[in-house]
Specification:
The complex is a heterodimer of chains A (370) and B (187).
Chain A lengths: L2 E2 L4 E2 L4 E7 L5 E7 L2 H14 L7 H9 L9 H22 L4 H5 L6 E8 L10 H9 L4 H15 L3 E5 L5 H14 L4 E5 L6 H11 L6 E3 L5 H10 L4 E3 L6 H10 L4 E5 H4 L2 H13 L3 E5 L5 H13 L7 E3 L19 E3 L12 H7 L8
Parallel strand pairs in A: 5-6, 5-12, 6-7, 7-8, 8-9, 9-10, 10-11
Antiparallel strand pairs in A: 1-2, 3-4, 5-13
Helix pairs in contact in A: 1-3, 2-3, 6-7, 7-8, 8-9
Chain B lengths: L9 E6 L5 E6 L4 H17 L3 H5 L6 E6 L9 H9 L5 E4 L1 H4 L2 H13 L3 E5 L5 H12 L7 E4 L6 E4 L27
Parallel strand pairs in B: 3-6, 4-5, 5-6
Antiparallel strand pairs in B: 1-2, 3-7
Chain lengths: 370, 187
């Protein structure tokens, strides 16, 4: 599958997979972004973790990122790299305590959770240039390819929930495509995500025109916080973000500004499980809905998101998930989508194991930090 | 149980699946608070770790305890939300025994952290168990102002946060504790 949206057109993804070995012999699994910056930072941070206590993750966070947002000199990459190690520490801690990760986070409340199928902005046979993409989008009849793709996903996986990515190139394309999707799948929950690439006035006009379509929410129709707040005030469909409320210090201003209805939090942007859980709790207290954002992650992060959704009653929306689009995974037991949902694995920690041969086959670089 | 001070203390016991017993208490007769605390104590003891380890770790190894006369925020979510949004407080004064469960305290702590507020946990009766439990909770709260408060004119002090298995309460410090005859003795 070629992913096409307003930010990029891609056909592959790179991730950093982490194994954290404890003194007691237990290994925790983590994962984060695969960018060179995140990979390098993860290794650097890991050096500072040697000899530390995996059960004291607050101390690990302070030691790695500092006490305030200002102390984190590595920005988004710093938070994501910490989050990967943090996930491995949570997994290792939960395995050591013989608890499922969901129970250590809160409780194992749900065994199966609906997940969201991403729909590319356009169906392409290879990763094309922006110019080629816009040429394709100029032909409005091409929207039917996306509708067909969505119906194929229903057929194969039973999806009931979709996220339509938008190239934010043509409001006519998006308007037409969303109407066609609604007609083809009247019961489906559909979220619409132009990644804030429509300017505020254009986005507001488009969202007003889409307001009666019964979409689940508009995800980052525009930006930044002020613009999305104005747009939210102009429509009745809920408004979500995974771009403008992405770390601790963004939440209070968003609440005060009444900027969004849904905080579609990404575990890696937020900087780990504890930060995500804190966000979910605060969001819920102030009437916002937390939901789990995801891109194309391996089974490790996909399962971590399932544990979060299972553990936290505040999470009502289905999780984003892209694992079913990957041609290979690193886990021994395939994590599959059936009837539009994924099951929470049993056992302690994440409840999954690495398949060493699969990991080796996919590895482009590896490092041992000791 | 009657405490050495003469006050009545409600004590609850929970048995974990493996048989480990956990205890909780309250001096305000709210059994739900005591049961919740006992469940956390039982889980922590059954795993051989402290409450801190179950809640993600500690932000501090010791906690200040200070005399404080300001009123606590009543357990009322609409009022809590309104007060936060009106910037009514610089420090959230909370009686954890009035608000309820550890989960609720963690939710209050999350909101406090998002709005860059510390939490002052009230030990309403100045009982040693209250101080110890409040210290354990305060250790898990992000705000640097977080502390334990009390009403009477004790001397301010620094409370060490216990890292032993359980919720950080030294049950043996009350002579009456070992005299309790449980209604459903462990088999």
């Amino acid at each position: 599958m070629v992913h096409a949206g307003s930010m990029y057109v891609i056909q592959k993804t790179e991730r950093t997979v982490i194994e954290l070995l404890l003194e007691n012999g237990i290994t925790g699994l983590g994962e984060t972004w695969g960018t060179p910056e995140a990979y390098a930072l993860t290794g650097r941070f890991a050096k500072g973790w040697i000899g530390k206590d995996a059960l004291d993750r607050h101390a690990l966070r302070d030691a790695t990122l500092g006490k305030s947002g200002y102390d984190n000199r590595n920005g988004r990459n710093g938070l994501a790299s910490f989050a990967g190690l943090d996930l491995a520490a949570w997994d290792a801690a939960a395995r050591s305590l013989q608890l499922p990760l969901a129970e250590l986070i809160g409780a194992r409340r749900r065994e199966s959770m609906d997940v969201v199928c991403t729909l590319p902005a356009a169906i392409l046979d290879r990763a094309v240039t922006r110019k080629e993409l816009t040429t394709h989008l100029d032909v409005l009849s091409n929207t039917k390819l996306v509708v067909q793709f969505a119906q194929d996903q229903v057929e194969k996986f039973g999806f009931r929930n979709f996220k339509l990515k938008s190239a934010a190139y043509s409001t006519e394309w998006d308007w037409k495509l969303l109407h066609e999707l609604r007609e083809a799948m009247p019961e489906a929950r559909i979220r619409f995500d132009p990644n804030a690439n429509y300017p505020p006035a254009v986005a507001t006009e488009l969202c007003r025109r889409l307001d009666d379509l019964g979409l689940e929410f508009f995800e980052d129709p525009t930006g930044e916080l002020e613009a999305i707040a104005r747009l939210k005030a102009a429509v009745k469909t809920p408004v979500a973000t995974n771009m403008w409320v992405v770390r601790d210090e963004h939440l209070a201003p968003a609440i005060r500004r009444n900027a969004v209805d849904v905080v579609l939090g990404d575990l890696f942007m937020w900087g780990g499980i504890d930060a995500w859980r804190r966000m979910a709790r605060t969001a819920n207290v102030f009437g916002l809905k937390p939901a789990l954002h995801s891109v194309y992650e391996t089974g490790i992060a996909t399962v971590a998101n399932l544990h979060l959704a299972s553990a936290l009653p505040e999470v009502e929306y289905p999780n984003d998930a892209g694992l079913h689009f990957l041609t290979a995974d690193v886990l021994a037991e395939p994590q599959v989508v059936r009837n539009g949902a994924m099951k929470l694995p049993g056992g302690a920690g994440l409840g999954v194991a690495l398949d060493r041969a699969k990991l080796d086959a996919l590895s482009v670089e590896a490092a041992v930090i000791s | 149980m009657r405490a050495a001070s003469g006050k009545e203390v409600l004590v609850a016991r929970v048995l974990a699946a493996g048989g480990a017993a956990g205890y909780g208490f309250t001096l305000n007769e709210d059994a739900a608070v005591a049961r919740d605390m006992a469940a956390w104590d039982a889980l922590a003891r059954s795993k051989g770790v402290s409450l801190l380890a179950l809640l993600g770790g500690s932000y501090r190894k010791s906690v200040k305890a200070e005399k404080d006369d300001y009123p606590c925020i009543a357990p009322d979510w609409p009022n809590f939300r309104k007060g936060i949004l009106e910037s009514r407080w610089n420090l959230l004064r909370i009686d954890p025994f009035a608000w309820g469960s550890v989960e609720i305290v963690q939710t209050l702590a999350a909101s406090a952290a998002s709005f860059e507020l510390g939490i002052a946990f009230l030990a309403p009766n100045e009982h040693p168990w209250e101080f110890q439990y409040c210290a354990a909770l305060a250790a898990t709260v992000k705000g640097e102002d977080s502390k334990v408060i009390f009403r009477k004119a004790f001397q301010d002090r620094e409370l060490r946060v216990k890292d032993e298995p359980g919720i950080g309460v030294d049950w043996a410090s009350e002579p009456g504790f070992k005299e309790i005859r449980w209604q459903n003795p462990q088999k």
